[in-house]
Amino acid sequence: MAQRELAIGFLGAPGCARPHLSVDGMTESGPNLSHWPGNRTPPEWKADLSTGIALNFARAPAARREDFLGDAELVLNDHYDTDGVLSMLAVVRPDFALAREELCLAAAATGDFGAWHGRHAFAIDRIVANLAAPRSPVAAEFAGVRGPERSLARYRWLIENAERVLDEPDSLAACWRDECELVYDELARARAGALRRQVVPELGLAVVETDGPVRRMTLNSLAGAFRVLHAEHGPDGCRYRFHDRTESWFEVVSFTPQPRIDLRPLAARLEEQEAPRQDGLGWFADPPDAPIPELWFGEDASQEYGEVSRKLGVSALPLACVVELVRDALEA
Question: Is the whole model's pTM more than 0.90, yes or no?
Fold first, then answer.
């Protein structure tokens, strides 16, 4: 018995209120394949990534899949990213996705976990991210399309052109090649000594020092821990940023990141130590339920998921003081 054909949808787009399977994210009801907190994924299909969950679903006996889908007529997501599109691909084109399982998982991990998994996986992730960007060779396909309809249009294009995206990423090199070279060079310099780290295994903490800014992907790829305190040294002083990686927000099954703490009391303690007070700058922190909660010294501003956008300031605190307070908070 073959699996029924499901249409592609996106939450909020016209025609997507029909019975559906939600993947990666979650809608309020109906079958769900996701690693997000509170997901409704059946235990036998659990995996670290939603793409892995969807691949497990694709491998299941046809009768089990049909029973799980119920009256679903389409598969949809409520946000746009690489893990989302590859989860959809595994559901609607299972043979194609299963034949490229490791590549799909590497690309999904690149996007969701913000770490380097090779050039090919990076290319796929950035093609997804930049598909409609001005530099994309297919940007005209999405001109004038906005909101949920834009995400739906991109998902449909990616599913229909999966051979090109996964097997021929060089045909879309404008979406990824320049950035890939920058990340690769930064990783190479970091491995050659531009990045210094100290890991505290019992706390799952890495203290990483660099001379100047580096990408979060570089930090995540080389930190060796899921809690990362970055000290960015510059000619004018030191800038600090701590973050919990997304692995501790998602529901993962093959490893166990340390539980998160509320970083806001720690920000208050650091603020008490910071002197003299600089106008407009201070220690701030996100709540622990943010996908990537940060603690930082700089301007108070929100941050879009997956984007490093906050402006840091030079702190008067020495690194040893910051590390001690962070360790005290984690140990407590």
Answer: yes
